[in-house]
Specification:
This protein is α+β, with helices and mostly antiparallel strands and 92 residues long. The chain has helices at 2-17, 51-56; strands spanning 29-32, 35-39, 45-50, 62-69, 72-79. It has two helices and five strands, in the order αβββαββ. The relative contact order is 0.14.
Length: 92
Amino acid sequence: MKALLLTSLLATALLVRCRAPDGCAPVSTRCAGNVAQICNGDGNWQVLADCDAVSEHSSTAFTCSYVNEEGVAGHTCLPTSVDAGTEAGGVL
């Protein structure tokens, strides 16, 4: 019985690990709706920040936006009152 249970757990773990990659380049970012995502080392998108959840836990609304500041670029949650194109010197 234990062997059957262990076999099924191992098979499940392998199937989850063998997921076909999304085809993204590791460390690239994107907005999927109002969620900032980052590509992991396996080439799959994962949640970096849920901007709706950030909004719920703060006193302002946040939206997923692209930022390029001091050589660091990517998608993240920004307050909706902030224009990403003018954030910190307006570098895009």
